Amino acid sequence: MRKHLLRKQHFRQMREVWPFVLVLLSGTLIFLADMYELENPLFRETVLIGVSLAKSVWFLWFVVRRIRKDAVQSFHFQEFMLFIGLSVLLYVLSYAIDFYCLYQIRPDAFQGLPAPPDLLDDFITFFYFSVTNFTTAGLGDVVPRVVSARLFVSLELIVSFFFSIFVIANLAMLREAFAEKQRGR
Hints:
This protein is 80% helix and 2% strand. The protein has five helices and two strands; from the N terminus they run H-H-H-E-H-E-H. The mean pLDDT is 81.
């Protein structure tokens, strides 16, 4: 019986991950559209902003829903923390892809990138930039220079702020619920 429940739980987790994969896939498709210059730059930039905004709203909704569900349902605290960690990693990675796509569409969008342009170095730099934004460290070595880049950074900062506050505010409640469920066994 335990194995059967474990399989259902893993299947449920996989269902919850597919939207993250969809977000990463959409960023990759925008990157490919830009790489092959399938549309004009303004159109690609507008689509990128729309996808990023939708992703941010969805991410907040998804995490809030998951936290509320785990607060009233049986869950493992380690599983929940893994969910939070993976969610943050995927969100940061998706913004790194967004920043990279924007940079490919508008090379003047950011200042402080290593020269000459290189796919791997640039992507690692944007991943680092996304991590510093999400953690609100904002070291200032990479700087958004155009309005759309500032909009992307603002979106990531707003979501990271609400995400951090919401998780921290509910962490005590979730730990208490977990401890209570452990005592009830």
